[in-house]
Amino acid sequence: MDSDRRADGVDVPAGGCVACESPPVDSLTVGYVGRELADAVSDAFDASSLSVSFDVVAAEDGESGLGLFEDGDVDCLLSRYALPDMTGIELLKRVRAEACDFPVVLLAVEGSEQIASRATAAGVTDYIPVDDSSLTTLPERLTDAVRRERDCIATDQLDGVEAAVEYAADAVIITDTDGTIEYVNPAFEEMTGYSREAAVGRNPRILKSGARNESYYEELWGTILDGRVWEEEITNERKSGEQYIAHQTIAPVTDDDGIVRKFVGIQRDVTTQRRLETQIDRSAQTLSTVYDVTSDTSLSLGEKMDAVLDIGCRYLDLPVAYVTRIEDETQHIVAASGDHNLIEDGAQDPLERTYCRKTIAQEEPLVIDDAAETDWREDPAFERFGLRCYLGARVQVDGSTYGTLCFGGEQPRDELVLSTLQSTVKTLANWLGYEIARHRAEWKLERKNERLDEFASIVSHDLRNPLNVAMLRLGHARESDQPREHLDGIANAHERISTIIEDTLTLARDGHLVEEQESVSLDNLATICWETVETPQATLEIRDDPQIEADPDRVRHIFENLFRNAVEHGREDVTVTVGQTDAGFFVADDGPGIPDSTDVFESGYSTSETGSGFGLAIVERIAEAHGWSVTVTESETGGARFEFDTADDGDRSLEPVGHRR
After folding, report:
1. What is 510-654's CATH superfamily?
2. What is the pLDDT of residues 567-580, one digit of tens each?
3. Disulfide-capable partner of 606 in 182, 599, 613, 641 (CB 3.0 to 4.6 Å)?
4. Closest by CA position to 419, among listed 365, 354, 358, 357
């Protein structure tokens, strides 16, 4: 093997790793302890042919020699065994008590094997018997002893460095000046997928992703070959083909002459960090864009919801988004975006088979990065919908759970990236809850204003007619010789006024949402209400015994108004039937029926001279208050049939959304 001789006379392998070599010995300050041979020792160093500069500092006794050591004035101690105040071994021990690696060389009378043994046991660096030949070689032996001691220190330090590099979290790669890899640490293996055996001997271009052109690498090599450090982020490629972003520092290692011998590269994988930063930026853009949409007063809530879901899919990079309403242990999808055959407007699923059952059970958004690799893989929600990644937040309206806002996809996502989106989705869910609450309030206000308009119409028009009749009859009675014949007309007008007032108040009260509901037997309730019908020839028939969840007081108003409507518009022997349907219940009669294209539920509508025109409006309001829909069709006998769909509760909960996409 070729070798080079250092300035201190030490041979090292040619081209060896300079990081593994101890610094050369260029000069030495020697502390000589002893009264005898001081001049001879100085002469020996002066006569040395080594290219090492020697400076000898004398101390006559052991305490003075310790002073040189303690003050840091010398690089090593050369001591006689016999000293005025102590032995050379005692001096050695006191030095070793302070520094285990400081060079101490002992000069003793030749043949003192016992002294040599004791000195070695005490940790002497070298033991030199005193004779003429030994003084001649003293500079070389002392220099060699100091070098060996320094080599030991360097080796210990190197071992520590190697251990640190081996256990470093960052990837470390060492190459020669041609770029051939000589060493990689375990972190490199884990980061890149290349084992040490597969990497050593190859070029770092095995990590090249193609994201940079040749001019980039020319600039890199020009920088490090010039002895300067290169630091920049780069997109590399793992053995698997997956790309990653690395913060890379390449530092040249030079020898004493400043010649670049090797390169040390350190890489830190910042892929996740950069993705997080990108996602944070996208989240900020999302909220900014959402604000522009939600502040647009020309859009309805349904249109805003559609836009927000589309924006969320685009900026959050999740292909599916939907809003749900949770009621009666059922998930109702009220808005959806994305291509998923089970996630679309109007779809319903039992809550126990959905992700939302766990979403509404916690304060913070639910995050699932890969359902297929977690406990979710056997969950009914994953089995049904197949969303491997999911991010959903609870939507609260006026302090109660309305439903959820959800985003997801059929491919897994990085958990840390999804976690950064939690606050964004929670903010969107809070906005949605606020908008629904505001829209509900506006809807209620609109309905209230509609009722006020109705009341104004009643006061200005409907009450004026019977009042005019009563006043006219009263005038005739005063002028007539037989006033009693006009009293019946006045009484009828007053009764008409009383009916209108009573129905108007009922309409006002029943415009509110119901509060308490319970299981109601329509058989019992209808029978009780039928007792108020004044025509004894009329007949009530009950088919089965429908059971519904309702406010019994409100439902009584439904039956009373429909029974009165059947009697007032039909025959005295009219037959009214109450029965069950697949969706709810019905009330039918065998009267004349309802004219085509007639809005029977419009306030003030009546074909009877004695009716107020508000009975069927009251029926519709009570149905809406329960969340039902009511329609009128022709009965089997040609009369009117009112059908109540108690399963269609969309109008009540979606009345503030008014959304059908």
Report:
1. Histidine kinase-like ATPase, C-terminal domain (3.30.565.10)
2. 887 788 899 999 99
3. 613
4. 365
